[in-house]
């Protein structure tokens, strides 16, 4: 990751630029000249077939690894991750899990506890839930704790790797709406990895469609309609419109909508 010239001013940041990123694990190429940009404060979705390299690219955006070639430029300084597996510490209760990442910050115990308490409420958990250990929480509640833990560090970049895919449909919709509200309220630049085109249409400002491995950018789609106006009818119609694009349909291994 190459810091952009002004690495302190996330709010005036030009956003995220992925520039001709190529990567291989051993002899096997995973990413081939992947390029796209995402303006600050927007939600980008990476979508593509299983194993094409979405998580690899997300990890690079978060600074966890470096591409063999190309570069990733942004001025964000506090990236936060949330994954399909909430990865909670089983020996700590929900409140302590939320506060865990704050220990690395110069922040006293009282402030850490207050922030964790506030976040419990923000993600829709009760004070009693805060006392529970991960095995005492439902899958949806564990995902809420993971989300609160990600937000606790006051991130300027949120990286979500299929955080809803283990949840049933109703819960997934609830969590999508919650995440959308939280990132909208904070104007957080977000990159979401998903397999679900409807989820991408519901949440993204820009959809980056990746081809099968080694991933290239097969198509880019911008969705200008405000998130709050994306009802089921809109999502259904938009998914159809995107799948009518042969490059998108080919990458996602579905028949183009028009020829069905
Ligand atoms: N550290 C690693 N070492 C070797 N190969 C790896 C490593 N990480 C990922 N891979 C391989 O790179 C390819 C891309 O993996 P990645 O997890 O990025 O794909 P993905 O698109 O996120 O997949 P999925 O949608 O199934 O989660 C896969 O074939 C994977 O096995």
Automatic annotation (TrEMBL):
PROSITE patterns on file: ABC_TRANSPORTER_1 (PS00211), ABC_TRANSPORTER_2 (PS50893)
Keywords of the record: ATP-binding, Nucleotide-binding, Transport
Domain ABC transporter span(s) in chain numbering: 16-237
Superkingdom assignment: Bacteria
GO molecular function per UniProt: ATP binding
Protein family membership: Belongs to the ABC transporter superfamily.
Name of protein: ABC transporter ATP-binding protein
Organism of origin: Rhodoplanes tepidamans
